[in-house]
Amino acid sequence: MTDPSKGGATVRAPAKVNLYLHVTGRRDDGYHLLDSLIAFADTADTIEVRPADHLTLTVDGPFAAGVPTGADNLVLKAATALGEAAGVPARARVRLFKRLPVAAGIGGGSADAAAVLTALSALWQVNPAKEDLAGLALALGADVPVCLAARPAFIGGIGEEITEAPPLPPCRLILANPGIALPTRAVFKHRGGSFSAEARFDTPPADPRDLARLLTERRNDLTDAAVALEPVVGKVLAKLDRLPDALLARMSGSGATCFALFATREQVETGAKILRQQHPGWWIEAAALLGR
Is the separation of the CB atoms in 32 and 25 below 8 Å? Predict the structure, then answer.
């Protein structure tokens, strides 16, 4: 983060990756209960905040067109909520540079909201108690609290129960999205079948292959629903799985972004080059997994 004393702050909002996602139950109010291992990739949106007389938002970047800029925008909601909670006027010029696709299962909106909470806390020189900030984040969305820390974590409940995960080994990811949006609500609504058990582990994986082995024993319970709604998701998974040296292919969150796990930078760059040649219209990123 840049130094707010120099007139502003800049915070990265990294892509969230569900390495596994089990649906463990459903509450009476309809919200599903989850057990998921969340990590983050080093590809990210960027939030910049500067002093201003009013609260404004500018959105640019490759995926700016998919971001609403009205009252429903999560970044504006986060800024307003923080100002109200801290008792300060919500005044800032906010710029969102949108590198991550929208409604893609990688927490773009949630990560952006978390980043603006961090950036404006610095700009406005407010320091909410950790539990108050977590409560404010949860009111914005189930994924926002875990995006505040941007560290590997197990989540439970509807996302509010966060437990630090063991360190993950250095490894690489290809993130691939075929250019479609999959609303989370629709995917959960389409999901069928029984619920899954929790599947957490305590021992840090020794290396990328060990991590892949652990993840192979787990799954993403929303995959079948996502594929039923958008069959191209199944095509993405199959293409990733067939790349040389891919250790695992899986969908993240409620889709449509999928990922493949690799051991080395050379392997992931080779795989990304192959996939871009085959599907030039897809969003494809080679990234490092942020394991700590």
Answer: yes
